[in-house]
Amino acid sequence: MSKLPKPTQKQKQFSINQKGIKRTPEELKKMGVRKRIEEIEEQKEWDKEWGL
């Protein structure tokens, strides 16, 4: 099995599972829409790297 890359600091601060980033609705409301889209794109790339 190939060695997986270490999660970045940003990824560690969120609870990440195989379905993607889990956040409370409260947290989602606080974030801007553009920021959310960036996070989702980032998560998709990260999932690809990790083969999730």
Characteristics of this structure?
two-stranded antiparallel ribbon; 52 residues; mainly alpha; 2 strands
Can you walk me through this structure?
Residues 1-23 are annotated as: Disordered. Residues 8-18 have a biased composition (Polar residues). The protein has one domain (9-50). The longest helix has 18 residues, at 33-50. The model has no long low-confidence stretch (mean pLDDT 67). It has 52 residues and is mainly α. It is built from three helices and two strands; from the N terminus they run αββαα. It is elongated. Strand 1 and strand 2 (20-22) form a beta hairpin. Strands 1-2 form a two-stranded antiparallel ribbon.
